[in-house]
Design a protein that fits this description.
Elements: E1 13-17, H1 24-32, H2 35-38, E2 41-43, E3 47-48, E4 63-64, H3 67-75, E5 79-85, E6 88-93, H4 94-102, E7 106-110, H5 113-122, E8 127-133, H6 137-147, H7 153-167, E9 175-178, H8 182-198
Parallel strand pairs: 1-7, 1-8, 2-7, 3-4, 8-9
Antiparallel strand pairs: 3-6, 5-6
Helix pairs in contact: 6-7
The structure holds adenosine-5'-diphosphate and guanosine-5'-monophosphate (5GP).
């Protein structure tokens, strides 16, 4: 399938949700590495109060801010939606979303369930929701542990506990993608994106 440009149509919001460690960030990042898709789809960068993981970069993975700064942005209405996850705040900056949609570009966001629900409510016509499933909870645990050696045991078990709850929401999403083999999952995600792009 070829990536066709959408003339005079507003952009779509592609929300990638699923438990921590299921591979949302990896899949979205790889999707945008496709040159054709990169012209059409932009990854939204959230603001968070979570500490940076090893290898993460300011402004690339997230905008890492203090709690005070996060509250200031909320008060100034610069956050479109936000959530609290394991004690940290995460929010979608409003400005870039509105600007890109108006320009007819698509936006890709990795959000928790609350964020997915809110954005679907704000933009019911042009939001596509995708839930990424891990092949098993054991694989999920190994991925969370392998992603960052600094993540402590308590945080890993909290993320896993939440993951078990989150999995039951998969049915509410427009699409499910099973992320066992990365190349297969990426192919499925590309297919969804190209289909929605030409719709
Ligand atoms: P999420 O954004 O859903 O929390 P990540 O994209 O950070 O998850 O992936 C968690 C870890 O699992 C990362 O270390 C990533 O490299 C790895 N990973 C993602 N998808 C796969 C896959 N299909 N096979 C093996 N490892 C994967
Ligand atoms: P992590 O700490 O693993 O990067 O993210 C924790 C959870 O917060 C993940 O489910 C991630 O998708 C979600 N998340 C990240 N940014 C945002 C955001 O701006 N809004 C919402 N609602 N969830 C977010």
């Amino acid at each position: 399938m070829k990536a066709k440009k959408r003339k005079n149509k507003p952009g779509k919001i592609f929300i990638i949700s699923g438990p921590s460690g299921s591979g949302k960030t990896t899949l979205l990042t790889r999707l945008i590495q496709d040159k054709k898709i990169a012209k059409l789809l932009v990854k939204s960068r959230s603001v968070t109060t979570r500490p940076k993981r090893f290898g993460e970069r300011q402004g690339k993975d997230y905008f890492f801010v203090s709690k005070e700064e996060f509250r200031r942005l909320l008060k100034a209405k610069k956050i479109l939606e936000w959530t609290r996850y394991l004690g940290y705040y995460y929010g979608t900056p409003k400005g870039p979303v509105e600007k890109l949609l108006k320009a007819g570009r698509h936006l890709g966001l990795c959000l928790d369930l609350k964020g997915a629900r809110i954005l679907k409510k704000i933009y019911p016509q042009n939001t596509v929701t995708i839930f990424v499933l891990p092949p098993s909870l054991d694989v999920l645990k190994a991925r969370i542990e392998g992603r960052c050696r600094e993540t402590n045991k308590q945080e890993i078990s909290q993320r896993l506990r939440l993951a078990k709850k989150e999995m039951s929401a998969a049915r509410q999403f427009d699409y499910n993608v099973l992320n066992g083999d990365l190349q297969v999952a990426l192919k499925d995600l590309k297919k969804i994106f190209l289909k929605e792009n030409s719709a």
